[in-house]
Amino acid sequence: MLFYVFQVHSADSLLKLVSELKRTAIFSGLSSLSENVDRRIEVLSQQAEETERMLERIGQEAAASLKELEAHYYSSVVRTPLYD
């Protein structure tokens, strides 16, 4: 009988240990996941900043090209009249 009590106690201790190990694995996994998410957020933020700068540069180049085209158009001798 004493053997069974010891065996039940050991099984209970083992279940508690497994439960604690599971909790530890989950929490360490969450912290690792959180670190990965933080790194990914940083990378995506940098890419967003680079994209904003690139779009700003493209907008400025497009505006400059449009001004140049307008200047050529208005100085052109062979300009098509707006109204016939």
UniProtKB/TrEMBL annotation:
One Gene Ontology term of the biological-process aspect is:
regulation of transcription by RNA polymerase II
Kindly indicate whether the keyword Cytoplasm belongs to this entry.
no
User: What Gene Ontology terms describe what this protein does at the molecular function level?
Assistant: transcription coregulator activity
Intracellular or extracellular location(s) = Nucleus
| UniProtKB keywords | Coiled coil, Nucleus, Transcription, Transcription regulation
Which spans of this chain does the record mark as coiled coil? 34-61
Q: Is Transcription one of the keywords UniProt gives this record?
A: yes
InterPro entries assigned = Med22
> Which GO cellular component does the record give, naming just one?
mediator complex
| PANTHER family hit by this protein | MEDIATOR OF RNA POLYMERASE II TRANSCRIPTION SUBUNIT 22 (PTHR12434)
- This protein is called Mediator of RNA polymerase II transcription subunit 22
Q: Which organism is it from?
A: Triticum turgidum subsp. durum
